[in-house]
């Protein structure tokens, strides 16, 4: 399944691409116009990507996810867990990175800093209710189904 998405490029950005035929997301790169940014330990920095998007339908959302290698090798994660880019947002996409390590990390222009995937969106019809249907799990949460 595919969707057409118009992409506006600024700051010398290049068109995002899928790394392999089986990739679920395109790589997002830092658009620092030839420069670099240092993320000090424990700090957060918003990194511009130089792209803005316009999906062909409002029935999708662009999700910004961390790159596993940055997290595992360098302690660099998304500051907000995941990013949600609504279908009607037309501004430049920035990625807020958090350095969870004790070593400064340098992001250079063109470095792959995150990944973006497109997912369908279901608009919920929210219906007030005094009672909810019963399930086996019920209200159990936070480990209530066990650890194994």
Task: Please give a structural write-up.
The protein is mainly beta and 148 residues long. The protein has one domain: Deoxyuridine 5'-Triphosphate Nucleotidohydrolase, Chain A (Distorted Sandwich), CATH 2.70.40.10. The chain is built from one helix and eleven strands, in the order E-E-E-E-E-E-H-E-E-E-E-E. Strands 2-11-6-8 form a four-stranded antiparallel β-sheet, with no helix packed on it. The radius of gyration is 19 Å and the shape is globular. The mean pLDDT is 95.
N-to-C series of helices and strands: EEEEEEHEEEEE
Termini Cα gap: 35 Å
User: How many beta strands in the DSSP annotation?
Assistant: 11
The top level CATH class name: Mainly Beta
Adjacency order of strands in the biggest sheet: 2-11-6-8
Q: Overall 3D geometry?
A: globular
Largest sheet: 4 strands, antiparallel
Class by alpha and beta content: mainly beta
CATH fold node name: Deoxyuridine 5'-Triphosphate Nucleotidohydrolase, Chain A
User: What share of residues are in beta strands?
Assistant: 35-45%
CA-based gyration radius: 19 Å
Q: CATH superfamily name?
A: Deoxyuridine triphosphatase (dUTPase)
Number of domains: 1
Number of helices: 1
């Amino acid at each position: 399944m595919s969707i057409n998405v118009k992409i506006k490029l600024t700051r010398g950005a290049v068109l995002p691409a899928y790394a392999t035929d089986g990739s679920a997301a395109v790589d997002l790169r830092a658009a620092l116009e030839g420069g670099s940014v240092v993320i000090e330990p424990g700090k957060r920095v918003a990194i511009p990507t130089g792209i803005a998007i316009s999906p062909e339908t409002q029935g999708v959302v662009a999700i910004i996810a961390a790159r596993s290698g940055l997290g595992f090798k360098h302690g660099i994660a998304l500051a907000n867990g995941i990013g949600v880019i609504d279908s009607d947002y037309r501004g430049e996409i920035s990625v807020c990175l958090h350095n969870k390590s004790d070593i400064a990390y340098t992001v250079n222009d063109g470095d792959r800093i995150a990944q973006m995937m497109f997912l369908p969106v279901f608009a919920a019809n929210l219906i007030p209710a005094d009672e909810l249907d019963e399930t086996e799990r019920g209200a159990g949460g936070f480990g209530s189904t066990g650890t194994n």
